[in-house]
Every structure is written in structure tokens, then in C-alpha cells.
Amino acid sequence: VGPFDPSVVSEFQDWLHESDYDHIEFEPAYIECLTEFHGAVPRKPYFTTANGTEHAVTRFLNFLPRGSSNPMRQYSVAVNWSDLDDRLGPYLMPFAELFAGDFLCFDYQNRGRPSIVVWFHERSFDAPSTEFVAIDFDAFFSCLRATPT
Length: 149
Hints:
Blueprint: H1 6-18, H2 28-37, E1 46-48, E2 54-60, H3 77-88, E3 92-98, E4 103-107, E5 115-119, E6 130-134, H4 137-143
Antiparallel strand pairs: 1-2, 2-3, 3-4, 4-5, 5-6
């Protein structure tokens, strides 16, 4: 989607903090990944949840600035979070799109680095429905593979 501008992440994170989402901090490993793979479609899209469910990343979300005319802005973290925040709850932040409207999310419910979960849109009306994937972003990124099992 073009070059990554860290100030867009900072602006969004500052806005989140001002809106009582001060527990959401985008971690350095994720920011580093954005500098190389901003909004990318991964070559290694497949991963398996702790429950054994296989998924594929359709694309990583981006941080295009507000007001951008780039059509890929629809795949930004901020746009997707604002579309889903009432169903995500206070601790989930999407960072990658999966098939059929599901998302990979950072889960900030526990202290420390956020864990990685799959959020299921069709099951998340009364409360967020998630499945654990990895203890943190580094562990998630290292479990991606090029082929399904």
C-alpha cells in the first residue's frame, strides 16, 4: 500500500489513549513488521490455532493516514477497528484480515505483550468469540507457513 509512516500509528494510538483505550500499545515487533510488510498479502499465509483450526491471512491491515484517497484505506487498522469496536470489546485490536470477515487481533486483556487470537465475526454478537493463536506477535509471525497442513 506504499511506505509506512510511523506517525500514523502514533496518532491513532494517542487517540485511543484519549478515548480510554490506554491499555492498547502497539509493540515494537509489530511496528518493525509494518516497516517491511505494510498492508501486505503474505507469501506464508497459513497458521493453526491452539484448537487445531487452520486459517489463512488474506492481508495484513495497514496504517494509511486519515483522509487518504488510496482505495486500500478500507483495509486500515483504524477503519476496521472503528467498524467493529462494539463487537470486539475493549481488549481486541485487529491487525490482519482472514477469510469471510474474521480477523486476527491483538488481545490486550492480560498485562504484558498482547497475545494473538482469531476473532470470529459470526459468533461475536453478545460477546467477542475468539480462539487463541500465539503468546505474542513474534510467536505468531514465526508460525506462518506457505502451505496448508
